[in-house]
């Protein structure tokens, strides 16, 4: 072991030991800042984020464009397309949560509705103490009853919250400010902390009646603006085409540490446009979209040459990120018989030529995704060993034998001969699975049924990604097609698993836990609205998910996650695509912003503000720019 590696090894061991001691010291004591990995850099005395401008001016309009339409202000159910500003997980612009996830550290949360929390050493429960200043926009206090009611309705109606809090059996009032959550099992180390992610909804409003005297129903879509508690409320809307949010002037939490220097825009306006090309044109002209996060490498490299860019009135900026990279890929829906054979799924991995696409379409800006936990110590590599191997040995007879003897590697198209090589390997796997090429078509050797599937997409980017893959698939007789539908239809079909293949994105944290059920569990596979896009029903995966959730310490968590990652990869549930460890943002030069932005997130737009002088200059130069 070299000196450098030795220092890294012992530093890692110290971090694990410190995290374990930290968790032990937390037991049965009230604490504010919570962390799953180690102490927050701010400690327990969090005053504000170190990158924000505490004197950032309030005011101005922040304009955004959204592709598609909306028909609901209730994001916590499967039905309907929620309006911009709402979030299916978390509170969005309208609601506050018990704690607020940190913008500049992974797996850390700071106080919001709850001012402190505690839990016993066996992790059998968690208690949250509410801030007595917390109130709804109508002036009524946020109560323990609101918290209990929110937990009950979200666990019942939201697929995401249902699995996230699966081991939480009940919430009970301890006092008028304390609520205790009881767990079905001990040892779920993550659960006390992530209960802080619970969004709190106003029980008295949802159980009341609307202007017509009709009782409200939390289980149904609605276009009645709900009562909220956060920094914004709905000022006006045009169903399906526009929603305007107004900052609440007497927002109860405005001076809390997590809010200082943030949420500075007086107004946030979202205008709906039917397709991405129209949205792009709107951005170049100004007035409807002030800021554009860019996902297209081609557009970033070649399209940003319109007059406002050349004049310096629109700025391109790259923000580096340090957070884990998401798994983006073609999700093969095993609810379709066509994809239930692992050999078939593995075969479909080989025709994806990332290297050529990256060179010819993406300007070499992307990196191939090799793990479901890319960019973290949780990503598997090499051959299984140590505790990971010990975990996997229990399931050896239920796992692909190659998992134990071969390093998982995706095809690399690095030479002119690569295409022939990998397409032949794909054909060989199809042959083993009972498929043959006849008349140029891949067909079932017994039934003659053609191998045919549809990729469902909702944007031009989906077409860019899918077209080269489809071309290569057709070279081996696979009849793959792409269908682009509008975003609302896409969301509904995705929620109901009505597709053969979609391009999905699954984001991970540095401390995976209860959310893994929503990604991979057999129960989630049958629950509309879950993120188990591939329809995975694998007892080994279920067992490994539970092993992660009930890991005894960080070392155990890392080993269990390595094992899950390896099992997912070798079962080829997804054709992995790529990631980019930067955030690309182009914006009209009307903003002020802190010199530093949080590298974990890349950019915190909530810490920006409208500069009146810049905005006035743009308005004089470009008609319609706010």
Automatic annotation (TrEMBL):
InterPro entries: Peptide/Ni-bd (IPR030678), SBP_5 (IPR039424), SBP_5_dom (IPR000914). Residues 110-523 form the Solute-binding protein family domain. Keywords: Signal. CDD domains: MbnE-like. Gene3D superfamilies: Dipeptide-binding Protein, Domain 3, Periplasmic binding protein-like II. Residues 1-26 form the signal peptide. It holds the Pfam family SBP_bac_5. The keyword rRNA processing does not apply. It comes from the Bacteria. It is found in: Periplasm. Belongs to the bacterial solute-binding protein 5 family. This is Extracellular solute-binding protein. It comes from Mesorhizobium album.
């Amino acid at each position: 072991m070299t000196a450098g590696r030795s220092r890294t090894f012992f530093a890692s061991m110290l971090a694990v030991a410190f995290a374990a001691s930290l968790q032990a010291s937390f037991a049965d004591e009230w604490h504010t800042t919570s962390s799953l990995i180690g102490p927050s850099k701010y400690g327990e005395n969090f005053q504000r984020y170190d990158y924000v401008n505490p004197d950032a001016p309030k005011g101005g309009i922040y304009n955004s464009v959204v592709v598609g339409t909306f028909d609901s202000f209730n994001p916590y159910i499967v039905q309907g397309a929620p309006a911009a500003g709402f979030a299916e997980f978390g509170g969005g612009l309208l609601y506050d949560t018990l704690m607020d996830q940190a913008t500049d550290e992974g797996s850390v949360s700071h106080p919001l509705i709850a001012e402190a929390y505690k839990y016993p050493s066996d992790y059998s429960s968690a208690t949250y103490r509410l801030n007595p200043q917390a109130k709804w926009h109508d002036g009524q206090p946020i109560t323990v009853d609101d918290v209990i009611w929110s937990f009950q309705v979200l666990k019942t109606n939201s697929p995401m919250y249902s699995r996230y809090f699966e081991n939480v059996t009940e919430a009970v009032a301890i006092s008028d400010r304390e609520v205790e959550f009881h767990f079905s099992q001990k040892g779920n180390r993550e659960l006390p902390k992530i209960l802080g992610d619970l969004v709190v909804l106003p029980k008295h409003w949802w159980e009341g009646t609307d202007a017509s005297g009709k009782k409200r129903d939390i289980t149904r879509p609605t276009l009645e603006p709900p009562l909220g508690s956060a920094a914004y409320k709905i000022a006006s809307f045009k169903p399906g085409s526009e929603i305007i949010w107004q900052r609440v002037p007497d927002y109860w939490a405005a001076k809390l540490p997590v809010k200082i220097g943030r949420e500075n825009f007086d107004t946030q306006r979202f205008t709906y446009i039917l397709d991405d090309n129209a949205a792009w044109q709107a951005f170049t002209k100004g007035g409807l979209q002030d800021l554009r996060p860019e996902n297209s490498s081609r557009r970033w490299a070649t399209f940003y040459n319109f007059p406002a860019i050349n004049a310096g009135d629109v700025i391109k900026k790259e923000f580096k990120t340090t957070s884990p990279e998401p798994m983006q890929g073609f999700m093969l829906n095993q609810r379709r018989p066509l994809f239930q054979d692992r050999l078939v799924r593995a075969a479909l991995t080989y025709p994806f030529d990332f290297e050529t696409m990256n060179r010819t379409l993406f300007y070499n800006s992307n990196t191939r995704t090799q793990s479901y936990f890319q960019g973290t110590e949780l990503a598997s590599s090499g051959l299984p060993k140590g505790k990971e191997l010990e975990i996997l040995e229990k399931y050896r007879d239920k796992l692909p034998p190659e998992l134990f003897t071969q390093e998982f590697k995706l095809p690399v198209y690095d030479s002119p001969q690569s295409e022939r090589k990998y397409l032949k390997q794909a054909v060989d796997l199809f042959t083993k699975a009972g498929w043959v090429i006849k008349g140029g078509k891949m067909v079932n050797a017994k039934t003659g049924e053609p191998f045919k599937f549809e990729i469902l997409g909702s944007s031009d980017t989906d077409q860019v990604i899918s077209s080269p893959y489809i071309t290569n698939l057709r070279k081996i007789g696979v009849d793959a097609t792409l269908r682009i539908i509008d975003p609302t239809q896409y969301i509904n079909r995705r929620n109901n698993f009505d597709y053969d293949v979609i391009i999905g994105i699954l984001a991970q944290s540095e401390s995976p836990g209860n959310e893994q059920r929503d990604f991979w569990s057999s129960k989630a596979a049958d629950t509309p609205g879950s993120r188990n896009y591939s329809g995975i029903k694998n007892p080994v995966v279920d067992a490994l998910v539970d092993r992660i959730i009930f890991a005894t310490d960080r070392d155990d968590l890392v080993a269990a996650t390595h094992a899950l990652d390896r099992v997912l990869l070798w079962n080829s549930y997804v054709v992995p695509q790529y990631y980019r460890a930067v955030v690309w943002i182009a914006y009209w030069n009307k903003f002020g912003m802190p010199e530093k932005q949080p590298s974990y997130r890349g950019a915190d737009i909530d810490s920006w503000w409208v500069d009146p002088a810049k905005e006035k200059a743009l308005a004089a130069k470009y008609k319609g720019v706010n």
